[in-house]
Amino acid sequence: MEYKYELVQADNHFPLKIIVHASSEPAYIPRHWHDSVEISYVLSGRIDNIYIDGANYSSKEGDIVLINSNAIHSFSVAKEEGREAITVLIPSGFIRENVNSSNPISFDCISIFETNEQRLQQFAELRDLLNTLFAAYLNQDNDPLEHIHLTSLSYKLVYLLLMHFKIDNESIRGFNSNKYLERLTLITDYIQENYDQSLSLESIAQVFGLSPEYLSRFFVKHVGMTLFQYINAIRLERSFRVLMNTDHSIIQIALEHGFPNEKSFSRVFKKVYQATPHQYRKRTRGMLGQGVSN
To answer: Which residue in 189, 193, 211, 188 sits closest to 201, CA to CA?
Structure first.
């Protein structure tokens, strides 16, 4: 997944995309957005932090968190055995074509703090459907016609969302300005392409013809973090892959991914993974008996 604007492709033969998360290791997905509606559903364990347009949530087994189209969001999880969750991505076009509307459709569908009895029943119905959808998804290899069942469940999911959770667009705080989305996409594209270079607020502002002060305020307002924090998040995500899949030294990984030195890389890494890169690599690979250089 590219952690900027993301173009979501549905799975073959049915309208949704389903991603299964079943790892006990810490993970961090930097802030990004896409046109699809996203549902996060925890089957076991917990998701420590879900950031959505300025709000933070922690979800546990059975919790449902819906992220509206183009909402900026991120995820982080700590080390935990037995964690399993699914992500269901619903293309916004699939929703709109079923209500004959070209306008954005928003939902209020976060179960975490819900106490209203009627709403709890609606979430229970949605939870049952997500469980059925997950079981059908896993059964595809056993039944060549399962995609028909998945398609019917996809329509039922959209039906439940529209029936019970649809809200007026004016009621939700969202990031819907095409002008700002386009500008933000250009800036984050640039960071994605140049994260391994020496980047500064001033240099990026100059590229886009903005003042450093405006760019700083713009980024914090719409992404909820500073530009430098975002750059480090991208550097961390890219360097993590290399750390876990190569024997490159820590200092080499740091310098090749835009960090000025090993100390800076270790500080950013430890804040997310609660260990230095060397400690994390050694702990994770130790059981495999793989020697890695530091």
So the answer is: 211
- CATH code: domain 5-171 is 2.60.120.10
Q: Which residue has the tokens 């929703």?
A: 95
| 21/11 Cα distance (integer angstroms) | 16
pTM of this prediction? Answer: 0.77
Q: How many other C-beta atoms are found inside a 10 Å radius of the C-beta of residue 25?
A: 13
Instruction: Give tens-digit pLDDT for 200-243.
Output: 999 999 999 999 999 999 999 888 889 999 999 999 989 998 99
Output DSSP code: residue 110.
B
For the stretch 20-49, pLDDT in tens is 999 888 888 888 888 899 999 999 999 999
For residues 273-285, one letter each, b for 16 or more C-beta atoms within 10 angstroms of the residue's C-beta and e for the rest, the string is: bebbbbebbeebe
**Matching fold, domains 5-171 and 179-288:** no
Nearest-angstrom CA–CA distance, 242 and 198: 19
CA distance 114 to 265: 40
Tokens in use for 262? Answer: 């090993």
| 253 membership: H or E segment, kind and range | helix 250-256
Return the SS3 of 14: coil
| Parallel, antiparallel or unpaired: strands 166-167 and 84-90 | unpaired
Distances (CA, A) of 57 to 131, 203, 214, 283, 292: 22, 34, 29, 29, 37
**Fold topology of 179-288:** Arc Repressor Mutant, subunit A (1.10.10)
Q: What is d(CA 175, CA 109) in angstroms, rounded to the nearest whole number?
A: 17
- Rounded Cα distance, 177 and 70, in Å: 10
